Amino acid sequence: MEILRRDTLNQGGFAGVREHRMVKAPFAFGPTANNDGSWPRLGNFVYLADARFAPHGETHMHSHHEVDVISVMVEGRIAHKGSLGHGQDLNTHDVQVQRAGGEGFSHNEINPDTAWNRMVQLWVLPEASGQAADYKVYQPEDGTLSRIYGGSTTADTFPAKTQISVAVLRAGEQLSLDSTYLAYLTKGTATANGEIVQDGDLLRGDYLQIEAQDIVQLIVIQATTA
Questions:
Q1: Contact indicator for 189, 196 with CB cutoff of 8 Å
Q2: Are the beta carbons of 48 and 203 closer than 8 angstroms?
Q3: Which of 58, 72, 101, 106 has fewest C-beta within 10 Å?
Q4: Taking the model in full, what pTM does it have?
Q5: Residue 52 parent element (H or E)
Q6: Rg of the Cα trace of the chain?
């Protein structure tokens, strides 16, 4: 198991957002994208940013095409505006999934509050081009891995070989993985394969046994294609 600690990376940002970009695919961000210590893609999963919005900060309206954008709320709220799901509010632990497809979408994410908030954004490339734009929101269950992206066409998620799940674990709760993964802790402290890991640690490997030491939020990415 390898560990990338968020605070070893420089913080960047734009508009009302400050962020650490943990995963950046070189083909999308340039051949030197990982010179800052960030990690490259896992299959079609190409980007992970841990972002904080300033009080009343926003991204401003912008567009995406042929990418699936997953937003995991860690702290606070987001007021979502755009061509998909306009008017949707996201609260702590909610997950928003937007499929751009060939149609594309435009959106603006706004912090409606007077305190900083926190949201993790992930990008996955679709396996087929030209799909219709679509929108979903999830409230992951506590104590288990809740799938919020990928899987079979019969699941209540956008089908894909890349699979993303979110878990909120209480102290003493455990989970295990036995395939190639990236796992990002966004809250709390845990023991992972015998090592202490904490909020802001990105893990990768082929096997994971993790036990929460307190309340832990964990984002897990798995892919069956290289």
A1: yes
A2: no
A3: 106
A4: 0.94
A5: strand 45-53
A6: 16
